């Protein structure tokens, strides 16, 4: 069902990647390694490549959003079936208004009305908005796990450094090691923040790619289906 819904809403380019990017983007100075990529403290610290946080519609989030739409698919002929009819007529030599009206002519035989199609389109928008709420809640938790704990750890370790600076010469090596830990965790925060931002922007781009098309169809249905 993912492929079917994707074919209705996503225009593929030559590399088979979904088109569309979020309007806001940011590149951070460093990237946080995964748990299995953390370099032991005994090894030299390496600079990580920057992480681009430009949002881009991708199959992961498209699959989640399309899955929610599929699960909430209304019975009978509704907006999704009308969308399929529009796609089937896309290659026909007709203008946009004629295409919408021709697809509706067939839809009428299935009991569809302009209002029913509009209501169905709004139904799927509501479903997608619920998915957005779930994503935002999960994003808050993810940010807290990946960033909040490290910020607390930095504060604790920095306090330990200040305390050890008052001690005798024998503690200097331990102090330097703790300073290195602080630098490493700051680098991890920068990378973790970039990953969270990238995840958010990927979702926003995927979400906007679908919502934009649905809203556009609704506007055209309002214009043409009278």
Radius of gyration: 25 Å
User: How much of the polypeptide forms β-strand, as a percent range?
Assistant: under 5%
Q: What is the β-strand count?
A: 0
Task: Give the N-to-C terminal Cα separation.
Answer: 31 Å
Mean pLDDT: 80
Number of spatially distinct domains: 1
Map the helices and strands.
Blueprint: H1 2-9, H2 59-71, H3 79-88, H4 96-108, H5 114-164, H6 172-224
Helix pairs in contact: 2-5, 3-4, 5-6
Could you describe the 3D structure shown?
The protein has 226 residues and is mainly α. It has one domain (63-224). Helix content is 65%, strand content 0%. The chain contains 6 helices and no strands. It has helices at residues 2-9, 59-71, 79-88, 96-108, 114-164, 172-224. The longest helix has 53 residues, at 172-224. The relative contact order is 0.18.
In short:
This protein is mostly helical and 226 residues long.
Please supply descriptive tags for the structure shown above.
mainly alpha, 6 helices, 226 residues
């Amino acid at each position: 069902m993912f492929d079917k819904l994707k074919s209705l809403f996503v225009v593929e380019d030559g590399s088979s990647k979904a088109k569309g990017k979020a309007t806001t983007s940011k590149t951070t100075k460093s990237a946080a390694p995964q748990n299995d990529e953390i370099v032991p403290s005994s090894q030299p610290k390496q600079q990580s490549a920057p992480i681009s946080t430009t949002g881009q519609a991708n199959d992961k989030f498209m699959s989640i959003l399309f899955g929610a739409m599929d699960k909430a698919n209304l019975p009978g002929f509704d907006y999704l079936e009308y969308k399929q009819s529009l796609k089937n007529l896309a290659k026909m030599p007709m203008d946009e208004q004629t295409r919408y009206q021709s697809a509706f002519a067939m839809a009428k035989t299935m009991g569809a009305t302009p209002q029913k199609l509009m209501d169905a389109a709004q139904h799927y928008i509501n479903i997608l908005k619920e998915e957005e709420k779930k994503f935002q809640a999960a994003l808050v938790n993810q940010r807290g796990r990946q960033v909040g704990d490290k910020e607390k750890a930095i504060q604790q370790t920095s306090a330990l450094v200040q305390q050890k600076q008052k001690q005798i010469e024998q503690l200097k090596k331990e102090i330097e090691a703790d300073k290195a830990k602080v630098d490493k965790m700051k680098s991890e925060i920068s990378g973790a923040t970039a990953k969270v931002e990238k995840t958010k922007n990927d979702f926003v781009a995927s979400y906007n790619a679908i919502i934009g098309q649905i809203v556009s169809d609704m506007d055209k249905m309002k214009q043409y289906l009278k």
